[in-house]
Amino acid sequence: MTFALPLALVVPIIGGCLLLFTFWPQERVPRADLLLILALGVGLGLGLSSAGFFIGLVGFGPSKAYFAAEIAVLAVLIACVLRRIRTGANTVTRGSGGRATRTPFVSWLLAPGFAVSLVAAVFAFGYRSATYPHGGWDAPSIWNLRARFLFRGGGHWKDAFSDLLGTWTHADYPLLVPGAIARAWSFIGSEPQAAPILVGLLLSGATALLLLGALTSLRSRGQGLLAGIVILCSHTLVFQGANQYADIPMAFFMLATFVALALADTVKEGGAIFVTLAGLTSGLAAWTKNEGLLFVLALFVAHLLMVTHVRGWRQALRRQAIMLVGLAPILLLIIAFKWGVAPRNDLLASLQPADIIDRLITPWRLWYVLKSFGERFMILSGWLAAAPLVLVLYLLAVGWGERGVERECMGTMLVTLGLVLAAYLFVYVVTPYDLAWHVNTSMLRLAFHGWPSLLFAYFLIVKTPEAAVAEITPAQPVGPAES
Amino acid sequence: MTLSWLNRRLAGILAGMRTHRPLLARVALAATTCLALASGAETLYLAVEMYGESRISSPSTGPARASEQDERLRPLREHLPPRGVVGYASDGLAGSSFTSVEALQDYFLTQYALAPVIVLRTANLPIVVGNYSVDSAADSTGARTYPAGLVVLRDLDSGVVLLVGAER
Q: Counting one residue from A and one from B, how many pairs have CB atoms under 8 Å apart?
């Protein structure tokens, strides 16, 4: 068991990394984007293997044959990567890149800060997990409960979605997290509690690593390290990750989608790969939580609006189609799950049009929801309840980057996050549950969904530390794609 | 008029933000990093403190009880069918309502511990699992009362019992 559990989780992560490495555009050197590929690989590997495990359960029942198929896919991916290395596809250099190499002292100063924040976050995660080895409330009542049904149920795994289970188990919730845990347990043949803890740790770490890697690749090492410090010091990331909930994975896939769209703007050819990746990661967000479906809808609307505005409707439709290619497999899986396996959503089932209108025209409800959201937004990071304010002051002090940000990507990010936020607030206002209870038990977690993405947008805009503290202007990264 | 004034002011602010101020930037960078690290330290302190408290006293409520309940109820799994539906009885269950939040949490944790068997909050089933308070006086005197028509098939100590219909 000692090595089996890490192996069970490492196999899909390696698969995710190899998949990315295989398709990573030549214009961006994979070796230069290693952190980015590793972070994306963690989420992609765990997400796709969770989806594959569920398909295996539906198709063949609880059979070890699924793992043979997984190993076969891994072997094919290794062969693809070796072929790519042999053909020398990775020898193309990116040119000047986006690094400000003349003032490395900022990185030297920020690197220990990042190391300290990383160690503190890992220890805090460890202590939290030791206190609550089964996670926060929703873990034993929703996510880990479902994983136990899938693993222990054998051929009767569909009992996990029985109508006899109370609505408190939320049996309609998607299966990325329970699937990843049940897959790991099935791989080793036992159910150590370390599996959900490690899944939480990996996806929390991958969220921070993705922010670090993306900003290092797109802006500068100092910018990546600073963003990494900020996200690692967010107590919500650490505690919710250790709670073994699906909210951190949800935040990860939202961030991964925006990172992929930002990367698409940095290459002249091969941008379609990143747009497809954005579709895939948005689909995995929807495979993580029901809120992910809202995210997908908001993303496609925002992307259509922004690309139409910048490049015209023909290009917009073309990009939507490319993104749909990535989304389609996961979306089909979700439709099949919702149609054939999951019971009806309890929230939607108890909403009546007359009640919705009644709640919408009750002003105090909206005021209460807005006030509660504002309070939770301010304490997302801890920071003596002031992270957003500190970041605004930091922007005022250092200014924003000399080069403009990609209008299309930035617009898509902000409009998507705005639409998702509006949808969340709407759901709270019309909730059939006791409003205070609903807000108190979930709003902090939901407020965090967009936080890593918001930090990503923020650090794309703000001037890099290298440029801010010294009399230099960072070199320009590869320009936006024309196609 | 107002709009153009606003536009000029905004342009002025934006131009000001582009002005290079290395000293101010260094102070801002140091302050932001220090504040973030202070928050990281606060997070670690909270986690260590919570862990310390959980070691001193056994939690009476909250998710930390999951481990305790999981341990208590694990032996019961051997006596249950591999799947199916069983009932639930507890001193915190009156009819179909729970008398306290803790009693409701115990029910959730019982379902968690006994999955994939489905636990319904009713005693009107052939097999019923009983999850009673560990420290109740009834535990020591054996005077605990069970729902009508049920008898104890297995008493697994610590308030955990397997009940079946008397006619069985």
A: 183
Answer whether B51 sits within 8 Å of A130, measured CB to CB: yes
Which chain A residues are Cβ-neighbours of B21 within 8 angstroms?
397-399
Cα-based distances in Å from A89 to A30, A260, B40: 10, 21, 42
In this complex, the residue of A130, A131, A145 whose CB is nearest that of residue B115 is A145
Per-residue pLDDT at A351? 77
Q: Which residues of A touch B42 (CB under 8 A)?
A: 235, 382
Q: Which of A119-128, A145-154, A177-186, B97-106 has the lowest mean pLDDT?
A: B97-106
Minimal C-alpha gap between A277 and chain B (Å): 32
Interval A273-281 mean pLDDT: 96
Instruction: Identify the band that residue A65 occupies on the pLDDT scale cut at 50, 70 and 90.
Output: confident
Span B136-158, pLDDT tens digits: 556 655 667 888 888 888 888 78
Most confident of A39-48, A431-440, B56-65: A39-48
Across the interface, whether the CB atoms of B26 and A469 are under 8 A apart is answered yes
From the list A113, A166, A398, which residue is nearest B33 (CB)? A113
| C-beta pairs of A270-275 under 8 Å, 24+ apart in sequence | A270/A25, A270/A26, A270/A27, A270/A28, A271/A25, A271/A481, A271/A483, A272/A322, A273/A23, A273/A24, A273/A25, A274/A25, A275/A319, A275/A322, A275/A323, A275/A326
Least confident interval from A168-177, A342-351, A407-416 = A342-351
Contact B116 A234 (CB under 8 A): no
| Among candidates B36, B50, B116 on the partner chain, residue whose Cβ is nearest the Cβ of A156 | B116
